[in-house]
Amino acid sequence: MTAPTQSAVTPDAARTSGAASPAPGNATDRVVKRRRIMDILDRSDRDSLLLTSNTALTWYLDGSRVHISLAGDPIAALLVDRAGDHLVTFNNEADRIEAEELPQGVNLHSIPWHGQLHASAAGLADDGNPLMEAAVAGELRAARQQLLPAETARYAQLSADAAKAMTDVLTAATPGTTEFELVSDLAARIVAVGAEPLVLLCSGAARSGFRHPLATHAPIGRRAMAVVCARRHGLVANVTRWVAFDAGTPQELDAEARIAAVEADIFRATVPGAKLNEVFAAIQDAYVRHRFGPDQWTLHHQGGPAGYAGRDPRVTADVTDRIVLDQPFTWNPSGPGVKIEDTVLLTEGGVKVLTVDERWPTTEVDGRRRPITLRP
């Protein structure tokens, strides 16, 4: 195997993880994931595939951290061929990755920190021309749909940790707590459990009209919404909660009940075999049925499948992926001053909510316990 000369992978830089290396993820799950990639290669009549996105890498490596900056590109690329898996990274990252992030059986290759990552990884292919991730994006998304047992357990724990962090922070909040103070407390708790706060949002009473409210120095006042998207082992859990320091107006309480009813309709439409654009049509109908009007879906995205991306993908009328069992979702219907959002898993018994903290107040909606506004 060869690599481009401008960023060559030298023979003495190639290493294979040994028995003493920690092994992220689960070996049994990784065998299934590799088989899914081989199926993609078979259908494409190709012998290798280059993975370069954080979503694809963390899924296939079963949770390895391949980033430094949360806002930056991965610091590794992976060539999957019929003989094995080849992870290429920069020389200033290689020791840490080998010691802490490399699954068993994955060959590690190091290039200079100023080298060309993707070209070097592609050069490891026998013909120097692997199938690129973008060419099979839909097939890779389908390969990620159904969570395997070990990653399901990791996701459930992350989701519970995110829900617990939200309860801790909002229980301690007061009307004088600023939005920045609230999200900084939330970030601290997410980081303390080994996760990364990819998204932190907060709107106090004066800013409740914004659907994506980045925090400000304003006090939250009588009522606030908080949102966190937390990532650990590559998986992303998403949750929204509300806190209020009065009984709420009749209009607020009514809207809260109606948005939960919209969500219940979405859950009923989330069944194996359904197409995502069919669920999207059900979402549009639900807004009208529950008196939010026909335009509310146009004012904010509605969520979709979850897992190794915040949404994988966001649903629209053009997304025709079919839903499968053991697939995670985060739906997030919203209206003026209201929103509901949890991370769930579609099981044989129906939709199971993962972002649960038993301390949070709930009410029954369509036979399922759903969160209501916390009033400390």
UniProtKB/TrEMBL annotation:
InterPro entries: Pept_M24, Peptidase_M24B. Residues 1-29 are annotated as: Disordered. This is M24 family metallopeptidase. Residues 162-348 form the Peptidase M24 domain. It comes from Paenarthrobacter aromaticivorans. It comes from the Bacteria. Pfam families: Peptidase_M24. Transmembrane segments: none annotated.
